[in-house]
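Need residues for this backbone.
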């Protein structure tokens, strides 16, 4: 068991690797920010219905629950969800 503040094992290896490669960390953060920007652009390009369905399912609603909340059918929810996911995927490839 390590004392408070002590780094050991795999954590120590990761700590050392990260400390030795600040450029790699900066590149990873930049890539992450770019991907986040693409996701946000994708979200903005969704219709209100697609965005609502996507958000409800991300927050844990089933397609049945989302359909009930939005006053539509499960099939309509599945279609909107599928289209929303495809739009986001396409934005991530840009």
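Answer:
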């Amino acid at each position: 068991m390590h004392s408070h503040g002590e780094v050991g094992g795999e954590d120590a290896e990761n700590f050392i690797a990260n400390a030795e490669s600040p450029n790699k960390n900066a590149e990873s953060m930049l890539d992450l920010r770019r991907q986040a920007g693409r996701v946000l652009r994708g979200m903005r390009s969704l219709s209100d219905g697609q965005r609502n369905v996507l958000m409800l399912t991300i927050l844990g609603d089933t397609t049945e629950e989302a359909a009930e909340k939005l006053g539509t059918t499960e099939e309509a929810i599945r279609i909107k969800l599928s289209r929303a996911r495809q739009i986001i995927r396409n934005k991530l490839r840009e």
